[in-house]
Amino acid sequence: MLGTKGQTSEAITILITAITIGIGAIILTNFGNVIQGTETTVTNESHLNITPPQVIYLDNVPVKSGSITLFKLTDYSVVLVEGTNYTVLDYDTGKINITYINTTAHGKDIGANYTYYAGGLDVENHPEEIVSKGSEGVRTFANFIPILAIVSVAVIILTLIGKRLE
Question: What whole-number distance in Å separates Cα of residue 105 and Cα of residue 5?
Answer without folding.
Answer: 79
